[in-house]
Amino acid sequence: MKKSRYVSLQLLSLLIMFTLLVGIFGSCMQVAIASQESGDSATLVFEYPKDVPQDDVLLNVYKGIPMWYQKYEAKEIEDIPGALTNSKNYQNLEEIIVGNDGQYTVKDVGGYCYFVRGKEPGKYYNIIKLFIVTEDDIKAGKKVIPIKTGPSAGAGYETGFNNPVGENGETVPEGFNQGIQHLVPIEGTDEMEHLLGTDELKGYQPFTTPVFQKGRALYQATTQNEMMEFINKYKKECEYMHVYNMGKTENYGYDYPLIVFTKKSIPKEASMAEVGKILQDGKLPIVWQQAQIHPYEPAAGESALVMIQELTSEYGNTLLDKIDIVMIPRVNVEGSFLYWRYDYSGTDMNRDHMVISTQQNALMHKAYYMFMPHVVVDNHEFFFSEMGNYDKNPEKFALNDFQITGATSMNNDAEVTRITTEIIVDKMHHDLKDIGFRPYHYGITSNNPIGRAYYGLSNAVSVLIESHGADGALFSLPRRVYGQVVATKSVFEGTAENAALIVAAVNAARENVVAKGKIYDEEDVLVLKQSASGAITSPTALDLCVADIYGNIEVIDSKKINLQDTVDRSRVRPTAYVVDKSEKWVNQLINILDGHGADYFNLKAGSTVDVQQYYYIEPDGKKSCIADLHELEAHTFEEGALVIPMDQMSGNIIGMLMEPDVGDSANHNGTLFQYGLITYDEKTKTLPLYRYIMDNPRESLKDMMQP
Question: Which of 184, 213, 233 is the C-terminal boundary of a domain?
Answer without folding.
Answer: 184
